[in-house]
Structure formats: C-alpha cells, structure tokens
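ok so i was messing around last nite and threw this chain in just to see what happens. nothing serious, just curious
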Amino acid sequence: MDWLYFLVGMVLQLDKHLAFLVAQYGLWIYVILFVVIFSETGLVVAPFLPGDSLLFIAGSVAALGGMNIHLLVVLLFIAATLGNLTNYEIGRWFGTRVIRRPKAAWLRPSQIDKTHLFFETWGSVAIIAARFVPFLRTYVPFVAGIGAMHRPKYVVYTLVGAALWVGSLCYTGYLFGNLPWVKANLGLLVIGIIALSLMPVAVGMLRARLGK
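result:
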C-alpha cells in the first residue's frame, strides 16, 4: 500500500511538486506536462495519472509567472488531442484483429457491432463528457476505436472535448488558484475536483446495482 500513500501524497501536494519542477527544469516543464497529459489520455495503462487536478494546478502555477498560460493551454490541448487520437487508433487496430478472430470468447464481433452503434448514436456526448471523468477519458477513446466510430466525427468531438477540458480547468486555475482561500485549502479543493469528476461513475455504478 506504500505506492497508494505515495500517489495520494503526490496529488494532494501537486502544487508544491509542480512549482519545484518549474524552478528546477524551466521550459522543460512544458514537455513534462505534455507527456503526462498525452499518456493519461492516450495510453490505456495510464489512467492513474493526474488529469483534472494537474490542469487546474498548472494554471495556478502559471499565474505566479512560472509559465505562459496561453502557451500552456495550447500545448496541453495538442497533447490531449493527440492522446485521444492515438488511443482511438490503437483501439481500432485492436478491434480489427478481434473481428478477424471470431472465436475470441471475451469480445465477439456482435459486441463490437453494438459498440459501433452506440458510438454512432451517442458518440458526441460520450467523447466530450468523458473528458471530465477520470478513467473514462482514458478508456472511452480506446473503446470508440474498437467500435470503429466514424473517424471524422470522432476527430471533431475530440477537438471540442480537448478544448473544453484543457481550457476550462487551466484558465480556472489561472484566475482563482492563487486566491488566499483557495491556496489555504488547495488539498481539499483537489480532493473535491477528483470527487466531483468521479461522481458520474459512482452514480452509474449505483444505478446499475439498483437496477439488478
């Protein structure tokens, strides 16, 4: 469980760690943040990386003069977009291989057809809304690829979702992250951001459980 305590500590003191990285690495901080956001949205094995909280705190650190907020938003928008597109292509390649092997017991072609129908019908909502939900923003692009969602449509909603996600959180952190009350309660605020973003998942699980 040591890794869990370490991870929680990193998240709760993310502002201090990020400020240290800015002072230590200068312009390389843009590369570091780019890689983190790209990995969290583009690699199905990295849903545990900070997303919402990192964007908010990056904006608040930028307000102190360590980073250019507009450059930060543009670079992280690109990272979030490329991450989703990469994840989609991996899922599409993976789904094609599964379809070619109809004996695969855990994911049949009929299930992939249903997934495709879902994303063609509700894909716009799913792609944009998932941006604000941890874990979902990592897995939804992959599943959209498996379901072979129409690529041009997927790209459009990926761009919209990335712009809303990165822009809203970074600029909110930039405008309010260094207010005295916010700075004094930043740990609780980070927990609140995480809890709020996880609420749709909790509600969905509860509804599924009650439905049974």
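not much to say yet. The radius of gyration is 18 Å.
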